[in-house]
Amino acid sequence: MQNSLIEKWFIELKRIWLEKDIQALSNLLAESFEYYEDPFQKPLINLVEVKNVWKEVDDQNIKELHIEVL
Asked: Do residues 22 and 54 touch, judged by C-beta distance below 8 A?
């Protein structure tokens, strides 16, 4: 079965998270975007802001991550 574009996007997101490859986030985001880490906060609107939030991944010791597209 061939993965859809959305599934491929989430597979790459999972890889970035597990491998702590924060620099690769730029491959997943459009030139213009709104990224919501928390729905009650203002969205992040540039890559620098997103990478700063994702720095917390460096401190995580996650061996397995399951992402399911519904």
From this structure: yes
